[in-house]
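Protocol check, entry for the methods section draft. Step 1: assemble the input record (protein sequence plus ligand SMILES). Step 2: submit for complex structure prediction. Step 3: store the structure tokens unaltered in the notebook. Ligand used here: flavin-adenine dinucleotide. Step 1 record:
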Amino acid sequence: MSGPLGRRFDVVVVGAGVLGCAIAAELAQTALSVCVLEAAPDVAEGASKANAGITSSFYAPPPSIECELIGESNDGWEELCGRLNVPYRRIGALTVAFDDDGVRGLDELETQVRAAGVKVERVTGEQARRHEPLLTDECIDALYYPDEGIIDPVRLTWAYAELAALNGAELRFRAPVLDVARDGDGRLSAVVTPEDRIACRYVVNAAGIGSGALSALAGGEEIRMWPRKGQYWILDRDFGQTLSRIVLPVPTPTTRGIEVAPTTNGSVLLGPDAEEGGDAEDRSTSAGNLRKIFAETQRLVPTVSLDRAIKTYAGSRPAADEPVRLRFDARVDNLIHAGNRSTGVSTSPAFGRRVKALLADRGENTAARPDRVTSLPPVPRVLLEADPVTVLDRRPGDAMVVCVCEQVTAAEITAAVTSAVPARSIEGVRKRCRATGGRCQGSICMAGVILLTANAHGIDPGQVGMGPGGGSVGCG
Amino acid sequence: MGAGLAGLAAALELAAHAEVELVERLPAAGGSWQFDHPAVRDLVGRCDRAGVRLTMGVTALRWIERRLLLIGPGTRAWREADHLVFAGGTRPATPAELPLFGARVAGVFAGTVAHHLMEAHIALGRHLAVCGSGYWADLVLAEAPSHARVTVVGGDVPASPRVAAAWPGYAPVEVRGRDRVEQLVIERDGHARAIDCDCVVLAADQRPIRNVDGAITATPDVTYVQLCADTLTPDAVVDHAIATVAGLHGRNST
Ligand SMILES: Cc1cc2nc3c(=O)[nH]c(=O)nc-3n(C[C@H](O)[C@H](O)[C@H](O)COP(=O)(O)OP(=O)(O)OC[C@H]3O[C@@H](n4cnc5c(N)ncnc54)[C@H](O)[C@@H]3O)c2cc1C
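Step 3, stored output:
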């Protein structure tokens, strides 16, 4: 698992969430050597797998770094996702008002969005219902953002990680950074994991909710982090086929509010709520919160129904007093902070490029290597093909369906378990190709997925990972 | 679609009046009754003689405008048909369907999956909480290793010497644990209690398997032949299938 002892890297990135992986993908294409250290057993185990997968066109008013980063990222999604084989659709969003208070909220929001230079249209309730026929009759006024999109945030994180690995970055899992060594000038010289001590010239702190603790270990600034938990319902694709836009209420000062959002897999998300504090590792769902979430989304789209619920989940946003951090530490010269509470997915392309620019400012050679890899080999995703017959006739060997609900072939699962950053668990397979994630939640295909994963890694099926933590299938 | 007992019986019933193709995901007929069950063998032979076209090893994925998308190593096609008879079998309810909330941890299995893994001699835990009774629960109880302690939650208490404790009338409501399940909270009439376990098997509340897009919920050109009950006999399944498709022929005829 661990590399040669004493190996030295130019850059160590701590955290394999969407930000750490985006940064590693960008840096690995230069002459810099890169190592990613992740405490969890896989990529995207923190906030990056618990979010709504919305690529925002607007979140915070200008002037703000969040506004800049969203602007720098939003035009490029089609090109990036095409190269990296990541499901993405620019479907547009509606923020809807029910009453005079809401209308005033929309006025204020519209001013901010226009100041940011983001495309937006003020529409009547009736026009809004033409954009989204399922929208409630109660909507009297709305803002329509055509540039809002949806992405598979986990596929994106994995794709960044694959690109990083194919360009020579080393990714180590179950490698929590427990200590940071400093030289006489107070510069960081190495990071310490349970198995290794890794010398480096720069450390990128992309540790999400763990960023404060890492900064403290490194002697850096005090960063106060706390979890802001959110829960979701996932509704069946059968309902998702009838919904075309993201539908949101007027935002509050702390959240965008509880929304109805299609996903790139065709399902629909209802959520998230926002609960401050608690345990960062807590991913449990609760009946009370989920009931409230359902009631709020029903007000936006009256036809949502829990008869169509296939799953619930929860995750925590890495909240901090400074919601977006992208800069060198004020005390430690070679420590870069890269954190984002609410729009890490939406801003990830810009994070990669900006960290590269920060290093270039320090005189590092960040020119792209001529031999770099910039795209990933496509694996046909049956679910997303209008006519899978034509696609699979070219590769009949790939036409064996394992997960029927999500229309996943054995070829897609094999790609997930044998890639550069392979799945080692049921959860890892689900994250990469959706198998076991559909309406029957693996009732039919999970045993098959376990066997394919075990075979790929030459392990006993009981040793295949199962939950998001370190748990495995077998026990006792 | 589906060559279990229900699909076979429905196909045979319709074959006298219509051109019938029976597609099945697995390489053999039988579904949960297995290919060598006498009732299965009998129906396969009669379907054959009645001219039913049996297409095995092919998964049906979508039903759009009376075309069924079939995908498999041997067959990839959009099959035109007047009517889809969906005999996709049943499965236990998922956590969202029960609903069961709480931690997302290792060790919570659908009865279907637990049964497969136990058959392959994979140890799933020392203390199993089996929710529900009936077909899947019985299979799991039969395969549970002798050293495992088994608690049954809800359902009818099975007359099995494998059961160490039972909580009839209770429903599972919350999973607790860090990496693996440690406790299952169960509830009856507002009274909750937590039982210790390192494996939860969800075998309660049979639901029809619905996995063909366009045929998830009722539409006029789909008929479902999926009898959901805790315990089923081959006769019950066959009779239900015949009764369900009886009125079909003549409709949609061209
Ligand atoms: C409910 C919810 C909804 C959201 N909706 C959206 C949305 O629609 N669109 C959007 O753009 N954003 C959304 N977000 C925000 C987005 O998810 C985050 O901004 C983003 O995932 C942050 O990425 P990250 O890589 O910084 O953090 P994470 O994904 O949390 O990754 C940090 C990683 O660091 C690892 N780590 C921590 N400490 C250490 C250590 N000492 N050593 C090694 N590894 C360590 C952790 O294990 C973790 O894997 C949402 C978030 C939530 C929770």
